[in-house]
Amino acid sequence: MSFDRGAEWHRWDPHIHAPGTLREDRYGGDWDGYIAAIENATPAIQALGITDYGVTTTYQRVMAEKAAGRLKGVDLIFPNVELRLDVATVRGNFVNLHLLVSPEDPNHIGELNRFLQRIEFRRAGKDTYACTPEDLIRLGRAVDQNIKDDSIALSHGIGQFKANLNQLMDVYRDMDWVQRNVIVAVAGGADGSSGIREAADATVREGIQRAAHVIFSANPIDREFWLGRGKESSESIIEFYGALKPCLWGCDAHEIARVGKPDLNRLCWLKGKPSFDTLHQALIDPERAYVGQVPPSGASPSMVIDTVTISNAPWAQTSVVRLNPGLVAIIGARGSGKTALADVIATGCDCYTAYDDNSFLGRAQELLSGAKVTVAWQDAHETTTRDLADPFKRDADSYERARYLSQQFVEDLCSIRGMPRLISEIERVIFEAHPAIDRDGAADFRELLDLRAGVYRQARRQEEINLASVSDQIGIELEKSRQVAGLDEQISGKEKLIAGLVRDRDALIPKVASKTGERLHELTAAAETVRGYIRHFSSRLAAIAALGVEVADIRKNQAPDGLRDLKERNRPAGFKEDEWQLFLLTFSGDVDKSIRDQTATAETNLAAWKGKKPQSPVHDGSFIGADAKLEKLPLAVLEAEIERLGGILLQDEAVAKRLQ
Questions:
Q1: For the chain, how long is the longest CA-to-CA vector?
Q2: Where does residue 280 rank: exposed (0-12), middle (13-18), buried (19+ CB within 10 A)?
């Protein structure tokens, strides 16, 4: 016993003419060659829509061939009656309409002809003709009275017959059998609704498309449009055209060379059994119809399970389970074996991890001795066989071929301890929900997150560094603010100390009023001012020297280290070595020249303010002229004069040294 696999994709050809078709018949009556071409088609055709213009004669002949033992691989054959509407296309042809008829009713031919009998063509100012062989023959002879042969008249008549859509749809809605068993299709190409392009005919085109249940088109753009994935949304199409519509396609063969060979190898596929009910299902779910060289596939064949076989297990009433490629759930009543089947499949896929008291393999140990599971993969090149009694025993080269989320796994996932795994699973689902083209080549969620958020994370880290720096600066400023009171006290103390020292100095100078004493006071004050200049330029020279050392360190160490760190953090950027050199931090100008110039200026000023001790007086034994500006003189000159005057006023050598 084995289960039915369920809905699968099968090849259909809903639009194929047969020998004897009323128009453009190029078969030459070769029925055997025609039937053989269908039987030998690759991939195999399992559903056929035998097409003819207004009649079912060729369909009935194909059914006779089927009854005689031919077309054994074809499970469904149904009539496709092709009519032309009285609406012209830009090519000068007329829009083709198709009536796809269910063959399930044994009297479907009679009911179909009763429907066709009520479809009329009114010849301008002449007569009205029904879509029956008799009236079509009559129409052909009325147009060309020289025609004597009935078959020629029939072909000529169907070439003249044009149905009116409104009248046809009125009859369609008036007959219950037709509504249940006939599907209306319209060609979507240049000989169909798309061929009606004049702006004035837009209403006519839209009316035809609303009336049709199916669009005959192999154009992928048309399929996307009628599925609501094109320029119009699905809601708009449903509101305006009544429903989403499946797109079908056939070879439209009129000769043996074209049988089963549509243009561009665009084959027609429907998901479901080769039955007319599948076509009805496609009207509800147009995704079940597809036109392309191969049917849609959700995964590589090597990763899709074809069958699961349980051997040496008398308890397994269904020993062979055929899985559908689109399997999404195992359903059944409590105790029907859902968990058992899931555990068995997981074992065959080397992904079983739920060995506990709640699992089937854990509870059924005494029944599993010798039982094995064999998993066959869809590509038919590989099978895996595993021992059910020891689901963890695996080959050295085995690997997990599936992901098994057992009931225990789900329970753990929803618990507190399972939160990290739950987050990981959510991330996996989010990643897999992204189309491959939007994943930027990432292999998993974390890698994609790093790609998308990396620049923002880097910017955030940089802002954090900047905030920390600003915070440190604020802390420093606050600390300085707290030190102000103490510094004010120190300044006050220093000022008092200086005042005391000035008094002490003045006390050393004789109190006898004399020009020499006053001069000594002036020289002492000027010398203190000049010492301040010298301290300024000495400090400046030290700072310039320290700046030069730091510049050299930036060039030699900091900038290269920074470039190495930058390259390491941004290696995926893919810059070449010579391109990375452009990112080496450097100075915008000639800082070396600036340092040299500033050093030279400071040294010149420092040397000038220091000066050299004079060797001889310049006026009346003094080293300084009477009208000289003392605060503009070098310190050496001032100190020489202070020493000379001190020697005159201070006879005690110890007192002179203290004054100096």
A1: 164
A2: middle
